[in-house]
Write a structure and sequence with these properties.
Elements: E1 4-5, E2 11-19, E3 22-30, E4 40-42, E5 46-48, H1 51-65, H2 68-80, H3 85-92, H4 101-109, H5 113-118, H6 127-143
Antiparallel strand pairs: 1-2, 2-3, 4-5
Helix pairs in contact: 1-2, 1-3, 2-6, 4-6
Length: 146
């Protein structure tokens, strides 16, 4: 399998897993040594990344790609898992140069119903809830409150 470079310059290895007529695209990323949180070791799965580190990578992807799926990922990590953007950003400074709260806030605040429609949801939240939550997250970044 040939490697690619993601928008952040990290080596990316895409993997497609298919079962019961469903496809799942998994991207294996050769991340930078700096990380948010500590890797855990699962007895079956091996090394597992932290949700905070994955969110830090998603924030970099949102900045670089500006794709609706990245908005959905950030939304889910923050609203469904209760992660704090401010805390993750604080820990992510060693990972991603140029990851500024105001730029991320701009991306979150500019989300539209069209972005929501382009996401391939498993269980879609109501569009008003999705956009309202992204607005709240963006405003929190601008005001630097969590």
């Amino acid at each position: 399998m040939a490697g690619e470079r993601g928008a952040s310059g990290h080596a990316v290895r895409p993997l497609l897993v298919s079962a019961s007529g469903l496809d799942l695209k998994v991207e294996l990323v050769n991340d930078v040594p700096s990380r948010v949180g500590r890797v855990s070791v699962h007895p079956v799965l091996g090394r597992l990344d932290t949700a905070e580190n994955i969110l830090a990578n998603k924030l970099t992807a949102l900045r670089d790609r500006q794709e609706p799926k990245d908005l959905a990922d950030v939304w889910a990590f923050c609203t469904r898992m209760g992660l704090s953007l401010a805390q993750v950003l604080e820990g992510a400074h060693g990972k991603a140069a140029g990851l500024f709260p105001v730029d991320l806030a701009r991306s979150l605040l500019s989300a539209t119903g069209s972005d929501w429609q382009l996401v391939r949801w498993i269980e879609a939240p109501p569009v008003d809830q999705f956009l309202g939550d992204l607005r709240r997250l963006g405003e929190e970044l601008l005001l630097l409150r969590s």
